[in-house]
Amino acid sequence: MISQETIDELLDRASILDFSNELAGVKRQGPSLFAICPFHQEKSGSFHVRDGGKFYHCFGCGVSGNIFSFVMKVYGLSFPDAIEFIARKYGVEVKRSSVKRANPEARFKENLKKLNKLARMFYVSQMERNRSLIDEYLEKRAILPEIERVFELGFAPAEWRMLSQFLKEKGAPEDLMLHSGLVKRNSRGELYDALRGRIVFPILSVERIPIGFGGRIMPQFETEETPKYLNSPETSLYQKSRVLYGLPYALSDARYSRRIYVTEGYFDVISLFQVGVKSVVATCGTALTAGHVNVLQRSVSKVSVLFDGDNAGRDAAAKAFPSFLNSGLEADATFLPEGEDPDSLARTHRERTAELLEGLPRESLFDCFVEYQCRKSGADGSKALSPRQKAQVAGEIGKVLSVTKNPIELDEYVKRAAYLLRTEASLLKELLVAQKGDGGQGLPVENPPSSGDISSSRAERPSELSHVHRLLLRAVMVLKMEALSELLQTPDIYGNLPRTLVFFFESFKEVLERSERDFDKQKELVRELLAAFGAEWVAFWKESYTMAQEPEVDAARMFREALLRLREEKVLESIQVLEASLNEPEGENRREQLLQARLDLTRKLRSLREQGAAESSRN
Q1: What's the rounded Cα separation, in Å, for the pair 290 and 310?
Q2: What is the DSSP letter of 96?
Q3: Are residues 278 and 329 part of one domain?
Q4: How far is CA 201 from the centre of its chain?
């Protein structure tokens, strides 16, 4: 917990006037200023900063507050992150209570931030030392030196151990280096650099702290086996489904344009930024997710996603639509000319790029979604649908729209779908109601699993589950979607869980998704869900939440420990199967192959146990 002493010192020292570069149309009047409000669209300059920069008030939209709320709103930060951000600007040490200082998870994250800063410093310094290798390539890509400095581009030398040696000399522990993903360990136990012979792109948080890195292989080091782009893996700081490359640079411009472009590549962002299209971000090697949309909705009201104009691009636009449902954002797809990407567009058209982008064809993501469903049904388009295909497409649309929370928005989607499919809106509405009533995907959240449903699946009580499964269940109950999302992306674990747990997790996920923004409704539905599973489940839930309040209990660590132990169990089971095969007569013919497989699994088991030991030593 951040101390009151730190908060008071920052309130005393910090001034909104020192952040005036985030404001447009600034007019200073003595110790105060007027500017264009960054929180609503206006031209009159009704945003007033007063009392020497301590407070602000907008006479247009009525928003007001102090330095903390200003930084939180402008940069999309939580209160603790805003404190850290302001403290760094003024060189103030953030003091914490003893409970916070004792939190090993927070301490580990702080150390990881320091390691990432060291890595960024190393890559940038190598950029300067290897100009003869790099300059020609950057010139071909038309990247100006000043833009290179803005984005803090770096270079990872082709040598195997330069970064790992540098970090070791700076005192970075091995477990931290390995967790960052910038350093790996080979089969002989030796450390080596993950990024080699690459231009490096630091991926920054909104506070401009490096949380991950991307690397593009230099042409002279490229081979058929080498991936062109390589990203550092997810860490406790870096979740790709929630991080957008270039966001810190895009925010200032996006607050006034209220629109942001989303693309796929690092060079797309840099090239567009260089020619004046500064309100642009990119995903980090993933498709656009609901997590990305949540980040965007803090800063803008409109999103244009850039896609290729071919069928693959149109399919990608369609698949992005569900992520924007219930976000409150106006989202459209901007389709690029054939053979162009944002990078090539910027290099070809330069200062005319912004005007060109505005003039490109745009379609709503929902229209793209309807078209995609038509193509999936086998028709060339909505005009060519047979009655059977039309019914099939309407059913798929209904499944997605059934989670729409705003009734007016839902009504507009239904009308648009009816127009595109050349059918009656009333029929589509009837279909939605029918889907909600038949137990399909449109099942309303007000109908949690019944006790009959659960008894038919032979539900176990928590006390009948193994220790590691109870550990996992506790963590998921406390962390909710944060843990469920990760668990669902590990099919090797999820697919081997007891049926009761899978049934509970699926039901729990549905409840959380359908009551995402209504906390009271969520509590009611969770109570109903637990009651359906039985009294022991209700008691286990309460016990889990009571435990989570204890300072020494870390639910995130509990979740990681459960995943590690489940992976260990799976590897042990595989080893036992191999050993049984070795003892069979038929196994003699494949003995060498089986022995090698057992050796590989033993190494994997050792690695998992070392990882578990490292986790324990941190906590």
Answers
A1: 24
A2: B
A3: yes
A4: 18
CA atoms within 13 A on the CB side of 283: 19
Query: Edge-to-edge, what's the strand order for the sheet holding 64-66?
Result: 24-29, 32-36, 47-50, 55-58, 64-66
* 3-state class (DSSP) for residue 27: strand
Q: Residue 50 corresponds to which tokens in the numbers above?
A: 């007063």
Task: Using the 3D structure, point to which of 211, 238, 265 is the last residue of a domain.
Answer: 238
Residue 191 lies in a domain: yes
Asked whether 245 and 266 are in contact (CB, 8 A), the reply is yes
Eight-class DSSP state of 2: B
At 116-151, the pLDDT tens digits run: 999 999 999 999 999 999 999 999 999 999 999 999
Weakest-pLDDT range from 149-158, 184-193, 361-370, 449-458: 449-458
Pairing relation of β-strands 280-283 and 259-263? Answer: parallel
Instruction: Please provide residue 82's backbone torsions phi and psi, each rounded to the nearest 5 degrees.
Output: -65, -40
Return the closest-CA partner of residue 5 out of 140, 115, 95: 95
Query: Which residue do the tokens 């010139």 mark?
Result: 139
Highest average pLDDT, of 117-131, 367-381, 551-565, 587-601, comes from 117-131
CATH number for the domain harbouring residue 53:
3.90.580.10
**Domains identified in the chain, total number:** 6
Q: Which H or E run includes 114? A: helix 104-129
Return the CATH number at 163: 3.90.980.10
Cα–Cα distances in Å, from 428 out to 8, 116, 302, 444, 617? 58, 52, 28, 17, 58
Dist CA 432 CA 198 (whole Å): 51
Given 505, 526, 553, the domain boundary residue is: 553
Is 611 within the bounds of a domain? yes
Tokens of 531: 């009651």
3-class state of residue 309 by DSSP? coil
Same domain, residue pair 329 and 381: no
* Dist. CA 70–CA 19, nearest whole Å: 9
Q: Are residues 234 and 246 in the same domain?
A: no
Q: What is the pLDDT of residues 168-212, one digit of tens each?
A: 999 999 999 999 999 999 888 899 999 999 999 999 988 889 999
How is residue 354 written in tokens? 């912004």
β-bridge partners, 33 = 28, 49
If you average pLDDT over residues 154-179, what whole number do you get?
Answer: 96
pTM of the predicted model, to two decimals?
0.62
| Domain region containing 395 | 377-437
Torsion, CA 84, CA 86, CA 91, CA 95, rounded to 10:
-40
Q: Tell how far CA 411 is from the center of its chain.
A: 30
Q: Is residue 442 part of a domain?
A: no
Which one, of 327, 416, 329, 306, lies nearest residue 369 by Cα?
416
β-sheet bridge partners, residue 308 = 336
Q: Which pLDDT score, from 0 to 100, does residue 30 have? A: 63
Tell me whether strands 198-204 and 229-231 are parallel, antiparallel or unpaired. unpaired
Pairing of strands 210-217, 362-364: unpaired
Q: How many helices (H) and strands (E) does the chain have?
A: 28, 17
Q: Which tokens sit at 329?
A: 């954002």
Question: In this structure, are 91 and 213 located in the same domain?
Answer: no
